[in-house]
Every structure is written in C-alpha cells, then in structure tokens.
C-alpha cells in the first residue's frame, strides 16, 4: 500500500494544507493499492507564490543555462526508468507496447526541448526593431491520467525552455506515477520554485490555477468540456491558453489500400493506449466497394488481439483506468446497438477469461452513420465505428463533419494521392499509413479539439511573448 502524504512546492516535498484523501487502484485487479492526500486552493496559492518568487531569476537565464537544466531533467528521468515503468504498469495498467514508448518519450521531450532552444532565435531584427521573445510569465499546467508521466514532462520541458516557472496539477488518479516522477525530477536540482506540483481535484486546485491573477499562462490536456471551463475562467485575467482536448479521429481507407498492411494500421490507431487516447482513429471510413472485404478482415484481426494486464507481455489492450471509465465505455457499447448500429465483434462485458479488472472487449460496429452518438462523441475506450462512403468527396465530407479536429489518418498506396486527401482534412495532424511523426512537429487541434500547439518551436512560442524595441 502506497501512502502519499506530500506535494512538491518551492523545491521540497511538503505536507499540504488540504486533508482530503483519494484512493488509488490497480485497474487490472480492482484492488486498492494506495492513498494520496490532496492539496486544496491554499496549497495551489502557495505553489503559485513560490513560482512567482522564482520567475525573475528564471526569466534572466540564458539559453545555455536552460539547456543544462533540460539535460539534467532528461538524465534524472532516464535514471528512474525502471521505477517509472513499474508505477505506470501498476497504477494505469497500460500494455507493454505503450509502456515501451511512454517512459523513453518522457526523457526524450527534455532532449528535444533543449535542441529547440539551441536552434531558436530569441532575438531577431525586423526592420528598425529588435524583437525579443520573452517568457510570458508564471505558467500552470493541468494534465490527464492517460499518459501522466509524458504530459508532465512535456509541459515542464516547454516551460524550462521558455525560461519560466510552472505549477502543475496532475490527475489525482495518477498519484503514484506522479510521486515516482517527482522523486526523479527532484534529483535534477532545479532552482527552488521553478517546478511545483500539487495533487488535487480539478474543481479545487485546477480552478484556482485557472482564476489566479499571478498565473499568466495555462496549458491543459483533457476533455473538451473541462477545456471550455478553463478558457472561460482564464479569460477574466487574460491568461494565454493552450488547450489540447478531445478527438474523434477519422481513418480514411482509400480504395487502393493494401489490406495486408492497412488492417494492422487501422487497429493500431483505433486501439492505441487501450483506446484511452485523444488521437485514436475511432471512425473508419471505408468505400462501399470494399466494405465486405474490410469487415471480414477486421473480424479476424480483432479476434487475434489479446486483452490483459501489463504483467502479460503478450497483451495488446489493457484495462480502463477506473470503474467509472469502464462503465462509460459499456454505456456507449449499449448505446451503439440502441442507435441501430450492427455489432460486428466485441460487445458488453469483460473479455472471456477475465473475471476481474476493468477490461473491455475490443468492439467494432458497422452500419454506423455520422449522426449516431457513437460516431460523434469521444468514447475513450477500444470501440471502433465503421462508416461507408460512396466516393472520395463524400469520405472527406464525413471525416470533416465533426466538432473535433485533432488527428486524422489516411491509408493507401499512392503517396501523392494520400497527401492530396490529407490537405483537405480539417485537423491539426494527419498520419499517413501510420508513419511516425517527427517529435518536433506541431501537435494540437482544430475546432473543439483545442487551441494552440505543443512541441518544437510552435510549442515553445506558446510560452513566449514578442517585445519590439524600436530605435
């Protein structure tokens, strides 16, 4: 049983003013594995005050000094990789394939941020003006549970790169992972007050970060509904806001696609991170001509997927993070059938042989139309909807007929053709045939999927303000 009694403020682990406790569970067994003591609004204000005190010195740091900090953070995470992997496996239950990406990625983001700083022109000439890119001010970050370690590291790396200080409110459901990561980050020896982390509820700690006038910048990853509330609150004090929100990504399977390769790409996209991913491609658009062939292939491919705990290296899909999330996904599987979609594979309940744990049967619906809720709302579980299209124009229209626009997918064999389709999609990122994205390329969404971008120079500039000195 892991009991977490402290938060991280002003360079030290301290006992919070808040006294409420939150239970932590292993989602693969449903067993309670720990408790975390939650901070409150007073703790958030103490963390903000520490960050504010540290900001003037951090603002004056040189790019070389910030690069040194980023390298120290990178090395600290690398040194704690095994412990981070274990914490994520136990508390989140991600399959080994996702773990193999997540922990290395958490250290990589510091290296990438350092390279961005090294290549970025913080001062430049435009006519008779010297334009200086300065840190926007004290930053706040609110991060979700579905890749807790990676989100904390990404937002911290960007703040350090920009020369600012930060207060982070991670998901309370990820407190063991957060504590393990903080123990690593503490070893990097950042100046006091540069990094502050307060465990707590969104409506308590998150709300204070959103409204506090000493926070100049807020970066949030999570649901669209919460993002809307943060944006509304932050507007009162003119905070700069980056929001990376929900998604309902389309996968357009073109008629020339090689199904021997494409089907594996479809499943990788739809069920990545056990379906608990904003970037999941949960709407598969297939032409009427190839519909029967594709659905037949999918039945066979999904049958070969294995759902199970992180402790089983052959598991492809892990559990949902909580009982509440499991029930949410079950309700959508039931809703899809009520709406008239055909259950191709999967369905309600746990997979065969798994009598405990918040596991979901990987589920595929066919006969889905784009007005159904299962095609329009983010389910956040291993549920894929197949929609038919007559021609390419209709496929693009269906793909764009959504409130979301985070990440889309195009599958085929003609590279130029796929790029032409990609250019017509209203989305922040398009992945062609599961090609790996350059980690410096911008990430973020159109429409209700968010505002702003993360990673590389675009992500850095979201934490900077230009000042023109005219002479």
Put the structure in a nutshell:
The chain has 471 residues and is α/β, with parallel strands linked by helices. The chain has 15 helices and 21 strands.
What does this protein look like?
By secondary structure, the chain is an alpha/beta fold. The chain folds into two domains: 2-245 and 447-470, 3-Layer(aba) Sandwich (Aldehyde Dehydrogenase, Chain A, domain 1); 250-432, Aldehyde Dehydrogenase, Chain A, domain 2, CATH 3.40.309.10. The chain is 40% helix and 20% strand. The protein is built from 15 helices and 21 strands. The strands form five sheets. The chain has a seven-stranded mixed sheet, with helices on both faces. A six-stranded mixed sheet has the order 10-9-8-11-12-20, with helices on both faces. Helix 1 (41-59) crosses helix 7 (202-211), helix 2 runs antiparallel to helix 4 (96-119) and helix 9 packs across helix 10. The mean pLDDT is 97. It catalyses: an aldehyde + NAD(+) + H2O = a carboxylate + NADH + 2 H(+). Residues 14-469 form the Aldehyde dehydrogenase domain. It comes from Pseudaminobacter soli (ex Li et al. 2025).
The description of the largest β-sheet is: 7 strands, mixed
| SS-based class | alpha/beta
Helix content: 40-55%
Number of domains: 2
Q: What is the CATH topology assignment of the largest domain?
A: Aldehyde Dehydrogenase, Chain A, domain 1
Integer average pLDDT:
97
Name of the CATH first level of the largest domain: Alpha Beta
Family: Belongs to the aldehyde dehydrogenase family.
Keywords: Oxidation, Oxidoreductase
EC number: 1.2.1.3
Enzyme class: oxidoreductase
């Amino acid at each position: 049983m892991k009991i977490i009694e402290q938060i991280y403020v002003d360079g030290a682990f301290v006992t919070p003013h808040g006294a409420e406790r939150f239970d932590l569970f292993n989602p693969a067994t449903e067993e309670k594995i720990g408790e975390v003591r939650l901070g409150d609004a007073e703790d958030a204000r103490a963390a903000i005050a520490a960050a504010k005190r540290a900001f003037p010195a951090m603002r004056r740091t040189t790019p070389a000094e910030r690069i040194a900090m980023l390298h120290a953070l990178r090395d600290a995470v690398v040194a704690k990789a095994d412990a981070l992997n274990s914490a994520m496996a136990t508390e989140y239950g991600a399959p080994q394939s996702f773990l193999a990406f997540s922990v290395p990625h958490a250290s990589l983001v510091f290296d990438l941020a350092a390279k961005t700083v090294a290549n970025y022109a913080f001062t430049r000439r435009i006519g008779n003006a010297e334009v200086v890119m300065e840190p926007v001010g004290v930053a706040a970050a609110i991060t979700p549970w579905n890749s807790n370690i990676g989100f904390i590291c990404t937002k911290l790396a960007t703040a350090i790169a920009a020369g600012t200080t930060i207060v982070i409110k991670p998901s309370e459901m990820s407190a063991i992972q957060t504590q393990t990561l903080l123990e690593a980050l503490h070893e990097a020896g950042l100046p006091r007050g540069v990094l502050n982390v307060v465990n707590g509820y969104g409506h308590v700690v998150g709300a204070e970060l959103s409204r506090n006038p000493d926070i100049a910048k807020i970066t949030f990853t999570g649901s669209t509904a919460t993002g809307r509330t943060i944006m509304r609150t932050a507007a009162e004090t003119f905070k700069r806001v980056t929001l990376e929100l929900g998604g309902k990504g389309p996968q357009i399977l073109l008629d020339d696609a090689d199904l021997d390769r494409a089907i594996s790409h479809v499943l990788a996209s739809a069920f990545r991170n056990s379906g608990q991913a904003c970037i999941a491609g949960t709407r598969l658009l297939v032409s009427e001509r190839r519909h029967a062939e594709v659905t037949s292939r999918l039945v066979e491919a999904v049958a070969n997927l294995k759902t199970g705990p992180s402790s089983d290296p052959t598991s492809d899909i892990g559990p949902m993070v909580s009982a509440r999330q499991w029930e949410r996904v079950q309700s959508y599987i039931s809703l899809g059938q009520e709406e008239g979609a055909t259950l191709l594979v999967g369905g309600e309940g746990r997979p065969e042989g798994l009598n405990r744990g918040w596991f979901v049967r990987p589920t595929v619906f066919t006969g889905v139309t784009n007005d159904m809720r299962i095609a329009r709302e983010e389910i956040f579980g291993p549920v894929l909807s197949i929609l038919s299209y007559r021609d390419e124009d209709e496929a693009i229209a269906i793909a764009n007929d959504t409130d979301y626009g985070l990440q889309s997918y195009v599958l085929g064999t003609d590279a130029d053709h796929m790029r032409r389709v990609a250019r017509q999609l209203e989305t922040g990122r398009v992945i062609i045939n599961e090609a790996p994205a350059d980690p410096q390329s911008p990430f973020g969404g159109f429409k209700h999927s968010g505002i702003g971008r993360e990673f590389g120079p675009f992500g850095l500039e979201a934490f900077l303000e230009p000042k023109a000195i005219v002479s």
